[in-house]
Amino acid sequence: NTMMAAQMTDAHRRFLQVLMSNGITEGSEARKLHQHCCETDKVYYAHDKLDDFISTINSHLQPLFMQIRKGVSEDNGRAHYAVVNLAETEVTKMASDYTEIELELFRKTMDLIILSENGFASSTDILNLADQLKTRKMKKKEAEQVLKVFVEDKWLSEKNGEYTLHTRCIIEMEQYILSNYQDVARKCNICHSLAIQSQVCESCGIGMHLLCVRKYFRGQTEPRCPKCNEFWSCDTP
């Protein structure tokens, strides 16, 4: 492993370190970081070579069962990058950072979000779960504090008292979610990545990201499902 790492330039290493300490990095920031690392270490830089730069790092990370993955924000469609530990498919990655009761609240919140119609869970519903946890009952104030930490650490995001999974969580836990929620977790019919904030066709059951729904039906007088061609009965955003 040390030999593999030794073939990486300092620019690659610096880029990887920042990505790991950030947890998740937006595409525009990753591009700036790429330029900065190359210029600092006086190695060749081209603005359109970020993906090549990352795949070089990934080839060295392979024996360590790690990978830099690219994902798209369900809120605004922007690209993000996160370092994923492929050896830890469970929520085990989080186990070193959180207590057992915090993880239980996270799993229950995840259940609510994934089993919901649109990929959101209200703070009221989450806080109602807090006093039914197996580990021990959690007071409302404590639960609110824990949710705040999950938002700060970019596992959840919150809008007007509604919680959904953060882009970081979706990138890092895609496999975990697809295998643990087989009956309900869907990949988007348009972009083929895991869809949490989504709508589902009532006729054939395919799912689409809210953003993809908006783009796909733009300019269509009568929205029809891209798979079965039936009328799309959800209110298009």
TrEMBL record:
Q: How does it assemble?
A: Component of the Smc5-Smc6 complex.
Q: Which family does the record claim for this protein? A: Belongs to the NSE1 family.
Give me the Gene Ontology terms describing cellular component. chromosome, telomeric region; nucleus; Smc5-Smc6 complex
Record keywords, A-Z: Chromosome, DNA damage, DNA recombination, DNA repair, Metal-binding, Nucleus, Telomere, Transferase, Ubl conjugation pathway, Zinc, Zinc-finger
The record's catalysed reaction(s) read:
S-ubiquitinyl-[E2 ubiquitin-conjugating enzyme]-L-cysteine + [acceptor protein]-L-lysine = [E2 ubiquitin-conjugating enzyme]-L-cysteine + N(6)-ubiquitinyl-[acceptor protein]-L-lysine
Q: Which CDD domains match?
A: RING-CH-C4HC3_NSE1
Residues of the RING-type domain? 188-229
Q: Which Pfam families match?
A: SMC_Nse1, zf-RING-like
Which GO terms fall under molecular function for this chain's record? ubiquitin protein ligase activity; zinc ion binding
Q: What does this protein do?
A: RING-type zinc finger-containing E3 ubiquitin ligase that assembles with melanoma antigen protein (MAGE) to catalyze the direct transfer of ubiquitin from E2 ubiquitin-conjugating enzyme to a specific substrate. Involved in maintenance of genome integrity, DNA damage response and DNA repair.
What InterPro entries does the annotation carry? Nse1, Nse1_RING_C4HC3-type, WH-like_DNA-bd_sf, Znf_RING, Znf_RING/FYVE/PHD
Mind telling me what this protein is named?
Answer: Non-structural maintenance of chromosomes element 1 homolog
Q: Name one GO biological process term.
A: double-strand break repair via homologous recombination
Localization recorded for this chain is: Chromosome, Telomere; Nucleus
Q: Which domain of life is it from?
A: Eukaryota
Which Enzyme Commission numbers does its entry carry? 2.3.2.27
